[in-house]
Amino acid sequence: MKPPAHNQPAGNTPLLSVRNLRIEFPTRRGTLVAIDDVSFDIARGEVLGMVGESGAGKSLTGAAIIGLLEPPGRIAAGEVLLDGEPIHTLPAERMRKIRGRRISMIFQDPLTSLNPLYTVGRQITETILTHRDIGEAAARKRAIELLAEVGIPAPDQRVDHYPHQFSGGMRQRVVIALALCAEPELIIADEPTTALDVSVQAQIIDLLKRLCRDHHTAVMLVTHDMGVIAEAADRVAVMYAGRLAEIGPVRAVVQQPQHPYTRGLMGSIPVLGADVHRLVQIDGAMPRLNAIPPGCAFNPRCTEAFARCRS
Amino acid sequence: MNMPAQTPAPVPDAPLLLVEDLKCRFEVSKPFLNRVIEREPRRWLKAVDGVSFTIDRGETFALVGESGCGKSTVARLIVGLYEASDGRIVFDGRDLGQLQSEAERQRIRRRFQMIFQDPFASLNPRWRVERIIAEPIRVFGLLNDDAAIRARVGELLTQVGLSPADGRKFPHEFSGGQRQRICIARALANNPEFLVCDEPTSALDVSVQAQILNLMQDLQDELGLTYLFISHDLAVVRHMADRVGVMYLGRLVEVADSRTLFENPQHPYTRMLLATIPDIKMEGKRHEIVRGEVPNPITPPPGCTFHPRCPLVNDRCRSEAPHLLPTARGHLAACHAIEEGRQ
């Protein structure tokens, strides 16, 4: 399961470059390797989908990029380059300046990522004031503009409301407004629509796509939902057991998946309009981190495995 | 199967389950003192507001809708976890609300079973799997001999794709998909004819979901089970169901067989739901703009509850609630616009 090491267009530096990333968790029973030799790039303005099942390491990769890896997890090898500059070695203080300013994050659950005791306006202005050199009145004006931009009706009144006064979809819009307030170059969206109903999910995906196009912001879209990826991403990386299984333009991966895991994954999704009697079934389950098989991590479940895959 | 189900002679051609004008409301009033001081009336949330449908033997009937539409409440009403405020649930010709004796209740109750959404929360973490699966057998007194129970548990575990040796383990030793298999084995333990499946795969990853859906289909073919399948995922519903009911804010808005519903949705809400499905095959279909969110069910809009989001709304929709009526295409739909032919 070796991904191609370099997949960016030659010549210009990608916005984000992750090189041979390896994340380890030292435990009493030995070191667990949660991410092993993961490399990919994100170009400016590009939406990279990161898809995989729970435990594949997709959220962890996002957390490592933005410097929010929880100890004892640590980057054991590899590097994270933002615009060619390594950011995984920056001291906490300097990383704080990048986080929110150049890279921001959208979390899965909008209720837990907003402070329930502050009005949304205060949370947005606080973030604007932290990262930009403008006055309080201008920041509030900007907050109202942002709320309008993410499609919140009557933003000049809603700005003084508390998070509990918003519905789930509206809350996620507020979170997106928060992520946009410093005009970051990259947004890491970790399952931004998983907690939402389908009709709201479609609206949020449309919004995210439109905003990124307008602001030329790159997005790393982490999700388990291949449908969301097909709708929103330009390229997609498929993760399995902490490794990249396949990476490529979304249309190619969705329509002609190469890796047996991706093929199984695509076949296991029920599709409207396709009259299949049985879904494709990948037998077994993803290995636990302490029992990743030697060779290709997918080989025990793979129908095409041969001797080389096992070593 | 070593235990023949002692079912009374079934009424021919009658549906296995008949639900008629089912209602369930929950009180969401403020405490008594606040109501007196603030002069507020008692408030009720109508979780299920007049739902009627039938399920035939061997059929999979799906209820689909967004969160808060009342689909899980219907499931819980049918298995008796909630008590209906109004309406009838008739299982194989017997009104579940009119059962005379405890013995009769047990006899009927043994014939259906439920599978829950969250396989982590629905298994007792302190019990070994064999005890979990044997519980329905013991409760209904189907087998009394320990060895026979153990053999039956082994058989059930094999049936759902686990090994009889797994019975000695605890639930935490299994993955999500395996746990859902244990839940299915438990549900099958009393040889039910009818399974109520409340979002059985929505806590699972897609590849595991495929395993569970395939297992459920195999079991249906093998044992002739009837399913009430509840899900918010339209693609899963399309794959599993023979007939589908679409719910919105406690009411059924459209009922049709699965193929025609998905090929030719009639109700504006069904159309909107279908439009939200991501285009996974990337055929470049442009979906319609989806508007608004589900309103607060404590204060639903008057008239047709979907009217604030509906593109076909007129004055009648704002004041008069539509009834589920047959359409020209053989669906049942609750919509004034369809009835009047303004599309």
Instruction: Give the C-alpha Rg of chain B.
Output: 22 Å
The percent of residues in helical segments of chain A reads 25-40%
Biggest sheet descriptor of chain B? 8 strands, mixed
- Biggest sheet strand order of chain B reads 6-7-8-3-9-10-12-11
Give a short account of the largest sheet of chain A: 6 strands, mixed
Q: Name the overall outline of chain A.
A: globular
Taken as a percent bin, the fraction of beta residues of chain B is: 15-25%
What oligomeric state best describes the polypeptide chains here?
A: heterodimer
Q: Which CATH architecture of the domain at 17-98 and 224-340 in chain B is right?
A: 3-Layer(aba) Sandwich
- Give the number of helices of chain B: 12
Strand content of chain A: 15-25%
What's the gyration radius of chain A in Å? 20 Å
Task: Give the CATH class of the domain at 17-98 and 224-340 in chain B.
Answer: Alpha Beta
Membrane topology (chain A): Peripheral membrane protein
GO cellular component, one term (chain A): plasma membrane
Subcellular location (chain A): Cell inner membrane
Domain ABC transporter (chain A): 18-266
Task: Summarize the structure in words.
The complex is a heterodimer of chains A (311) and B (343). Chain A contains ten helices and ten strands. Chain A is an alpha/beta fold and 311 residues long. Chain A has a six-stranded mixed sheet with strand order 6-7-8-3-9-10, with helices on both faces. The longest helix of chain B is centred in the middle third of the chain and has 18 residues, at 206-223. In chain B, the strands form two sheets. Chain B has an eight-stranded mixed sheet with strand order 6-7-8-3-9-10-12-11, sandwiched between helices. In chain B, strands 2-1-4-5 form a four-stranded antiparallel sheet, covered by helices on one side. In chain B, helix 4 runs parallel beside helix 6 (176-188) and helix 5 packs across helix 6. By secondary structure, chain B is of the alpha/beta class. The relative contact order of chain B is 0.13. Mean pLDDT of chain B is 88; it is low at 1-8. Helices cover 32% and strands 20% of the residues of chain B. Chain B starts with 16 loop residues before the first strand and ends with a helix. Chain B has a domain at 17-98 and 224-340: 3-Layer(aba) Sandwich (Rossmann fold), CATH 3.40.50.300. The A-B interface holds A 53-54, 167-170, 197-203, 205, 224-228, 230-231, 250-251, 254-255, 264-265, 267-273, 276-283, 285 and B 66-67, 175-178, 205-211, 213-214, 217, 232-236, 238-239, 262, 272-282, 287, 290, 293-294.
